[in-house]
Every structure is written in structure tokens, then in C-alpha cells.
Amino acid sequence: MRKALFAILVTIPCAHASAASGDSLVTSAQIPGATLRITVREPIDDDKATEIVEWLRTASSDVSLAYGRFPIPATSVVVIPTGRGRWGGDAAVSFGRVVRVGGEKVEFFVNADRPIEEFYKDWTATHEFSHLMLPYVSSRHKWISEGFASYYQNILMARAGRYTAREAWQKLHDGFERGRDSRPELSPNQAAASGVRRARMKIYWSGAALALLADIELRERSGGTESLDVVLDRLQVCCLPSRRTWSGPQLFSKLDSLIEEPVFMPLYRRHADTAGFPDVRQALARLGVRTIGGDVRLRDNAELTEIRIAISGRDELVSAVAGHPPAKKRTADRPARRPAM
Ligand SMILES: [Zn+2]
After folding, report:
1. By C-alpha distance, which of 141, 129, 2 is closest to 55?
2. Distance in Å, CA 149 to ligand 1 centroid
3. What's the gap in Å between 300 CA and the centre of ligand 1?
4. pTM
5. Which DSSP category does 75 fall into?
6. 19 has a pLDDT exceeding 70
């Protein structure tokens, strides 16, 4: 679980200040809506650094599949090599985090010895870049920022063709089940309080559940003209980048101000201080996401099948999209010690 342990530390200042020396590669990458300034630290050799830069360009472009552009026009990305067996074990990406001090910086700690195909299948970069669609949310409401990033990491990787739709819904379903089992006596706000232990899955997946419920309600009531993507597009236009800390209610009130009828604060009032887990089972069933012995099956004759397809795309085989190496089977490329998220 080391990776998840560190992934939760997003958006805090860190001690890994960028150094002027020791950089094996500094370059920039143009993606829709943004320029990334990418630093790959030594000792990663030039060939692998070039591959990693291309992976980052691809993963950051995933986020533009939400509303057509990357949320922060100027973002720094720093890749730091770690030794085998440290932090994330043998995982290609040990962990990542967003640092917001004088601008947005995303750091990735990687095992450069792993084949580049494993980087493409890894969700960490899509998760961290998805964080940038929201401003910095106070740590006591981190279940919102972690939840939205956890929701988007899965649906964006499906839209990008790096997960099948079924894989994405399987991961969401499994995450919701882990969230339901995690500290059921606590509310999301209680779980996110400092000093609370063994509540990580509740923090990540209760927020993802609210993101899904909001997305469905927006799409259903508008006939598809509104969605979480659309609201976050408007949030980017009005409010990003932001240099202040937002509380959960401040963020959700702002999101509600960008749509005709509120969705987010009603969900907050219903769930933020309520023990247990948001009921997503009925929502998944309406989307046509069924499980047989824990395995997700997608049904195309469900009440909200079209909304599910709008969220994640159709359940087509993962294929080589431009710039993406062909994905491998999940069982073949998931390191044994990789934590479940
Ligand atoms: Zn995160």
C-alpha cells in the first residue's frame, strides 16, 4: 500500500526542490491548452528519458479528454528516479503528487528500469494530472479532490483507449466496494480528519462516488448537454489557476453557481457528514454495470446505457491509439506488489 500512502500527500509543499544541476533532460511539451516544462532527473539515460517525456505528453493529454484542453496552461513536471524496491516496489511509477507553491508542479517518482509499456498502463500520471482540474482543496475535505481524481483517472484512461470501458467500470466498482468496507462508522469528513487511520479507501472512493452521482444527475436531467466535464470546463474558465485554498463547500457552491439547479451542495449535505458510503449500486445498475461473482459486465439495454457510453466510451478492445504503445493484458503487466486503488 506504499504507493497509495504517498499518493494521498498531493498538493502539499514538499522538500524536493528542483535542483539546477543533476537534470538529465529538461524539455517542454505542447499539449492541448498547455505547455509542460518537463525535467527528468539523473540517472535516467537519454533514451529512457525521451520515452518518459513522450509518456508524460500522452498521459497529460488524457486530461484534455474531459473538456478539450489541459486545465493549467503552464505546469512543471519533474521525474525523479527511485531505486528498485523502494516505496512502490517494482512498479514503474512509485508515486506521484501535485505541489502547489508559486505554480503547479507535478512530481513522479519512477523506476526507470521498468519497460515503458508499464508506464502507459499505470494510472498515477492520469490521476495526478486530473487533480489539476480542481483548485487546491483543504486537507479536511481532501476526499473531494482525491475522489474526483480517482473517478477521472479511470474514465479518462477508458476514453484514451488505455483501459477498455469494462476495465474502467471494474476498477470503479472495485474501488467503491473497498470504500464501502473502509471505516463504515465514519463520514467522509471524519475520515479525512488529521490523525484518522485506515480510512484511505473511504477518502478516495466516497469522493469518487459523489463525482459519479453528480455526473449522472447532470447528464440525465439535461439530456446530455451538461455533465461533470462541462461544469469543470466552466470552473477552469472562471477560476483556474487559483492561488488560494478552497474548502469543500466553497468549491461545491462555486460548481453549483455554474449550473442552473444545484447538484453538488445537495450531495455534500447528504453525504459529507453521514457515516456509511454513498449508494452507488443502484446508479451502477441503471448504467448497465452489473457484476457476476465480482466481475463487471456491461449491458447495453439498461436505462442509462447511453450515459455510461458518454462517460467511458463503448466497450471496445484496447487498441494502439496514436502515441500509445499497445496495452497489455492487466494480469500480465500489473506488478505483484502493486497496491490496489
Ligand atoms: Zn490524488
Report:
1. 129
2. 6
3. 32
4. 0.86
5. E
6. no
Q: Residue 330: what pLDDT? A: 31
Tens digits of per-residue pLDDT, 35-88? 999 999 988 888 889 999 999 999 999 999 999 999 999 999 999 998 665 555
On whether both 225 and 323 belong to a single domain, the answer is: yes
Whether residue 82 sits in one domain with residue 57: yes
Is 338 domain-assigned? Answer: no
Instruction: Choose among 100, 132, 103: nearest CA to 235.
Output: 132
Distance 223 CA to ligand 1 centre (A): 31
- For residue 30, how far is its CA from the centre of ligand 1 (angstroms)? 24
Span from the CA of 154 to the centroid of ligand 1 (angstroms): 13
Q: In this structure, which amino acid lies at residue 285?
A: A
Q: 9: CA distance to ligand 1 center in Å? A: 7
Q: Is the domain of 151 the same as that of 295?
A: yes
Shared domain for 178 and 310, answered yes or no, is: yes
Distance 172 CA to ligand 1 centre (A): 15
Residue 232: pLDDT band (50, 70, 90) is very high
Q: What is the CATH number of the domain that holds 290?
A: 1.10.390
- The reply to whether 120 and 174 lie within a common domain is no
**Angle at 128 (CA atoms; ends 27, 286), nearest 5 degrees:** 135
- Report how far ligand 1's centroid is from the alpha carbon of 99 (Å): 11
Compute, in angstroms, the gap from residue 237 CA to the centroid of ligand 1.
22
Helix, strand, coil percentages (3-state) for the chain, rounded to 5, are 45, 15, 40
Grid look-up 474501488 returns: 175
